[in-house]
Amino acid sequence: MLMCRDLARIASDYIDDELGVGKVMSVKMHLLMCGRCRSFIGNLRASIELMSAHSGQQVNEELVRRIDERISESLRTRDAGNIKPE
Amino acid sequence: METTAYQPEEEVLVDNLKSGNQKAFREAVRSYTPGMLAVARFYLDHASAEETVQDCWVSVIDAIQTFEGRASLKTWLHRIVANRAKNHLRKNKREISTDFSETLDPELAERFAPNGRWAKPPSLKSNESAEALMENGALSKCLDHHLSRLPETQRSALMLYEAHQHKSEDVCNILDVSASNLRVLLHRARQKIFLMVETFRETGEC
Question: What ipTM goes with this model?
Fold first, then answer.
């Protein structure tokens, strides 16, 4: 029988639909009977959605500036090399 | 999850990159650098990761000519960074050590009784949407703080899968981990975020 701790171990696999049919049935049966695990799954799902909603795109302005400078310099060098003398 | 196929809207950007358009490079650097850094940080310390991403962008000036659109530009860039970072690791003879044997976070594991039932169950029911939660600026800052404290391997896996919306197989290829190990990394990271959100909603503290 699936215990709460077992369910907590495979909760992400259940949420991401990565479990086999038998395991999914065990989880569903357990969730029917266990409000605590329903709460855990609900909160874990909310945390995952929170991560997805979080931009994760915070730009390190200083790094971006350094990269822009290096690219400009490389493009200039390359373009200068491509100009053929008349 | 998005597909890895070449996105039509990327065509214009890629064409402009191929012609060496500086504005296009600025746009691409701003869009793709956070994800590239997440990949590099899986393998390298902060300073080496930043250096690798910079070198990568310089190499892209020429390499973009070989981009054929078999994968999205994002996936292509992430693979380049991963290869460079792995080479850097090999040169420095470093190895990444990660424990993939336990899927349960130690802090969460302590909340179960010896019989496997909850001793300290989740305290709050989820009744707020992620968008509503994110409107709480303090929670958003707290999330940043906790993300920065995650082990690099977990953070990179989480960022690529959740925030940058890569498919599992792409994350496995980029980070060079097996599908089962990726599952462990994701689950461990998600539990940390779960614990953080729970504490924050319970106490208002980060």
Answer: 0.79
